[in-house]
Amino acid sequence: MIEAVSCGGVVIFRGKILLLYKNYRNKYEGWVLPKGTVEPGEEHPQTATREVREETGVDARIIKYVGKSQYTFTVPEDVIEKDVHWYLMMADSYYSKLQREEYFLDSGGRL
């Protein structure tokens, strides 16, 4: 089993949560929160703000830590056990520039 850690943001603007629409080769399709892998030497809050910026183009500031989710999934070589640390964040706008390399096709604010 491989352990992995990611961090992400629950980004709020005008009472709505920023979500990304992802379509990965028609195998995975749906609305997700921005998140990503912790890089060497990086603290969890840094990862969360960096990943939100990279995936959405939105500059957001952390309000507080809101918790951790955990899940497992299988890849051909092994089983991945993933922890995701979530931060409540505020943005000044939802203007976004999506990271197409990560298969994000749309974004929007949802209640």
Commentary on this structure:
By secondary structure, the chain is mainly β. 12% of the residues lie in helices and 59% in strands. It is built from one helix and seven strands, in the order E-E-E-E-H-E-E-E. Strands 1, 2, 3, 4, 5, 6 and 7 form a seven-stranded mixed sheet that branches. A hairpin with a 2-residue loop joins strand 1 (2-13) and strand 2. The protein is globular, with a radius of gyration of 14 Å.
Total helical elements: 1
Give start-end ranges of low-pLDDT stretches: none
The profile of the biggest β sheet is:
7 strands, mixed
Element order, helices and strands?
Answer: EEEEHEEE
- Category from helices, strands and their pairing: mainly beta
Radius of gyration: 14 Å
Query: Which range does the strand content fall in?
Result: over 45%
Quote the average pLDDT.
83
> Count of DSSP E strands?
7
Shape: globular
Residues in helices, as a percent range: 10-25%
Alpha-carbon distance between the termini? 36 Å
How would the blueprint of this fold be written?
Blueprint: E1 2-13, E2 16-24, E3 28-32, E4 35-37, H1 44-56, E5 60-75, E6 78-91, E7 104-110
Parallel strand pairs: 1-6
Antiparallel strand pairs: 1-2, 1-4, 2-3, 2-7, 5-6
